[in-house]
């Protein structure tokens, strides 16, 4: 194989603390169906949201090293928490790698909100990060929109346990959403890649709480990240030119059955297109 062709056919690596990044992988797969994709769920170390920045950075480097050994051509940090804590360092550590991270969709939310009050659901670590604080202060000053952050402690654990529909999940969401709805938030930013997996529940809860109001707008940036990676690959002539739809390889240091279930049932990857592995980094 010529070296350009080899470079183009290399995989895109995607990682998250666990299953949440699959919400981003789904968009990448739809946008770039001919790319080889490797997904790492660092579930053995989830959740990241209550860890220190130094711990999150250490895990992000370990997982990126693992993916680098698989000769990836690009990396998607499909985790808001890891992006906030580690993306600067990852870019310094791996200067030749295309790296795309997550950014909570505050900008689209500021355009869509009519009440000018936007709730931002994220992990505690993301909300406390310099990156988030800087973005929300800047956008608030520019647009006059008020961003009200809500750390959803415990929600990632529920989703990791595949208990999105359990009573405990509903109670947690009630606790976190009601105060936001009471102050007339009309737009909610899903600032953690796990949360799209409870988007339906959020919609149900908000319409039960304000039955006569307009449905709440939810903002998820997974699709924008897929477009960004598509653009960067094209710019560097690294888009795969093969018309095959390759197998998706997924790795976990947690429970492989959970990961397999999430891939086949939550984002509908056909079983015959999926290979599940464990790793112990
Ligand atoms: N999916 C994550 C995020 O986007 C990780 C959350 C966690 O592990 O706490 O922030």
> Uncertain segments of ≥5 residues (pLDDT<50)?
none
Shape estimate: globular
Q: Determine and state the CATH class of the largest domain.
A: Alpha Beta
Tell me the helix content: 40-55%
Structural class: alpha/beta
Q: What average pLDDT do the residues reach?
A: 95
How many domains comprise the coordinates? 2
Oligomer: single chain
* Separate helix tally: 12
Can you summarize the main beta sheet? 6 strands, parallel
State the strand order across the main sheet: 4-3-1-2-9-10
Residue fraction in strands: 15-25%
- Give the distinct bound molecules: D-glutamic acid
| Total beta-strand segments | 10
Summarize the model shown.
This protein has 281 residues and is of the alpha/beta class. It contains twelve helices and ten strands.
What does this structure look like?
Helix content is 47%, strand content 16%. The longest helix is centred in the first third of the chain and has 17 residues. The protein is globular, with a radius of gyration of 19 Å. It starts with a helix and ends with a strand. D-glutamic acid (DGL) binds next to α4.
Q: What structural keywords apply?
A:
binds D-glutamic acid, globular, 281 residues, Rossmann fold, six-stranded parallel β-sheet, four-stranded parallel β-sheet, 12 helices, 10 strands
Task: Describe the secondary-structure layout.
Elements: H1 3-9, E1 12-16, H2 22-31, E2 37-41, H3 53-69, E3 74-77, H4 80-93, E4 98-100, H5 106-112, E5 117-122, H6 124-128, H7 130-143, E6 146-151, H8 155-160, H9 167-182, E7 187-190, H10 199-209, E8 217-219, H11 222-235, E9 248-252, H12 256-266, E10 274-278
Parallel strand pairs: 1-2, 1-3, 2-9, 3-4, 5-6, 5-7, 7-8, 9-10
This protein binds D-glutamic acid.
D-glutamic acid (DGL) binds next to helix 4.
């Amino acid at each position: 194989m010529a070296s350009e062709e080899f470079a183009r056919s290399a995989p895109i690596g995607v990682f998250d603390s666990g299953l949440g990044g699959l919400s981003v992988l789904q968009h990448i797969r739809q946008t770039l169906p001919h790319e080889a994709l490797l997904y790492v769920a660092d579930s053995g170390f989830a959740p990241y949201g209550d860890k220190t920045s130094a711990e999150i950075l250490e895990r992000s480097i370990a997982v990126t090293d693992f993916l680098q050994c698989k000769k990836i051509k690009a990396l998607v940090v499909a985790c808001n928490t890891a992006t906030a804590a580690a993306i600067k360092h990852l870019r310094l550590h791996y200067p030749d790698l295309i790296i795309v991270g997550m950014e909570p969709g505050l900008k689209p939310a500021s355009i869509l909100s009519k009440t000018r009050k936007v709730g931002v659901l994220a992990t505690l670590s993301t909300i406390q990060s310099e990156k988030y604080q800087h973005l929300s202060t800047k956008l608030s000053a520019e647009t006059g929109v008020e961003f009200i952050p809500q750390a959803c402690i415990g929600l990632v654990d529920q989703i990791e346990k595949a208990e999105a529909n359990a009573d405990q999940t509903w109670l947690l969401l009630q606790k976190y959403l009601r105060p936001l709805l009471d102050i007339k938030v009309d737009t909610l930013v899903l600032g953690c890649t796990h949360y799209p997996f409870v988007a339906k529940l959020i919609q149900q809860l908000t319409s039960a709480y304000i039955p006569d109001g307009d449905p709440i707008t939810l903002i998820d940036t997974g699709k924008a990240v897929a477009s960004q990676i598509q653009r960067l690959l094209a710019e560097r002539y690294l888009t795969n030119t093969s018309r095959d739809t390759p197998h998706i390889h997924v790795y976990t240091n947690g429970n492989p059955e959970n990961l397999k279930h999430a891939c086949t049932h939550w984002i509908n990857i056909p079983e015959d297109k999926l290979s599940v592995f464990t790793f112990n980094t």
